[in-house]
Amino acid sequence: MVTLTFYAGLKDYFPADMNLGEIPSDIGSLRQYLRGQKPLASALLGQCRFAVDNTFVDEDHLLRQGDIVLVIPPSSGG
């Protein structure tokens, strides 16, 4: 199982925390899976960064059982 945590505007589409029993192979596959689940969030998901265990990762980062994945949309502020 992989635990996903969503932030900011993504909470309009997904619960704050979500568990996946079937694990996509990598972050790129996870992004595609999420786009398929919520097509209206596709553009926002395309701009998001992903972190695994509190470290930003690339699209080809392999996912493992027990990973905690943070899905972080762009932010601004001051």
Automatic annotation (TrEMBL):
Signal peptide: none
InterPro entries on file: Beta-grasp_dom_sf, Mopterin_synth/thiamin_S_b, ThiS/MoaD-like
Gene3D superfamilies from the UniProt entry: 3.10.20.30
One family name in Pfam for this protein: ThiS
CDD domains referenced in this protein's UniProt entry, alphabetically: Ubl_MoaD
Name recorded for this polypeptide: Molybdopterin synthase sulfur carrier subunit
